[in-house]
Amino acid sequence: MIAKPGQDPLLGIALVMGAASCFAVMDTTVRYIGAFFSVAVVLWMRYALHAMAMSVWIALSRDKTFRTGNPMFQIARGALLAFSSAMAFAALRYMPVAEFTAIVMLTPLVATMLARFWLREPVSRLRWAMVAGGFIGALIVIRPGSGIVGWAVLLPLAAAVSNAAFQILTSRLAPHEDPFTTNFYTGATGMAIATPILLAAGPGVFEQLAVAPPAQIVALLAVAALGTAGHLLLIMALGKAPAATLMPFLYVQIAVAALAGYIAFDRVPDAWGWTGMAIIAICGAASAWLNMRDAAAKHRPMTPVAADTVSQ
User: Do 197 and 44 touch, CB atoms closer than 8 A?
Assistant: First the structure.
């Protein structure tokens, strides 16, 4: 494949792996601070810093704008991603990071199912095989009745469904928007949703901030910074290589999450866990690649979809 002018596939792959690493470390940090801060505090900080960073980015750029031609689309996709984040942050209070990441990585497979039953799009036998394989991998990771994960697995599953709906909505409407403008509204909508939740939680949330050790405050800020950096790295990556080239490399997030979980909590998945995660990664990466390949064949831009596929 000959790279188009301005493209650098190797740099794009490096950037997308950096983005996946940011999200994995962010999730590990969320689990670390779960004993100190409520989900409302983490969610608000995550999106508030994102919105502020993108505001500064766009304000200082000559060719970017805050103007959107599809405000309802921006609100809907932002709300879906904020819900996904809330479910993810809640799940990380109970689940190991690697297993959580593997379940969330079912998103492309769930998107295939939603496209079939919601949008009535045809799905090939190969795609159905990828979906079935991914969910078999998830069952191996979860192992119902084993007590390894428990009821909390419903939270990342809800996050994956919300993220898949977000992905499909984005694929239909995002080509009409600048990705930087869309990324700003991702943060702004999330902050708008998280603010009343934070205030409704009562004065206790502010007491959390007042009594938290400095190291926890730094970790809280790191969650927001890592999430924002992950989004920006993805946008930069997608300017260097086609989405079909990049999407499979997002699954490095599972490996980084396992490594980060070992460093932070001295925990690694067992042999069955690794087996299930490998199956999910293979089926999910193949499904994502097929999605991008088919979109390219139809000349329908999918870049903005990839920019937020696995982020929280």
Answer: yes
Angstrom distance (rounded) from CA 281 to CA 276 = 9
Supply φ then ψ for residue 6, to 5 degrees: 85, -10
Q: In the structure, what pLDDT confidence band is assigned to residue 243 with cuts at 50, 70 and 90?
A: low
d(CA 234, CA 248): 13
Query: How much is the average pLDDT of 151-165?
Result: 88
Closest-CA residue to 224 (of 71, 41, 78): 41
CA distances from 46 to 195, 221, 272 (A): 11, 8, 33
Per-residue pLDDT of 72-96, as tens digits, reads: 888 998 899 899 999 999 999 988 8
Coil vs helix vs strand at 101:
helix
The tally of CA atoms less than 13 A away on the side-chain side of residue 213 is 6
Instruction: Give pLDDT, residue 142.
Output: 77
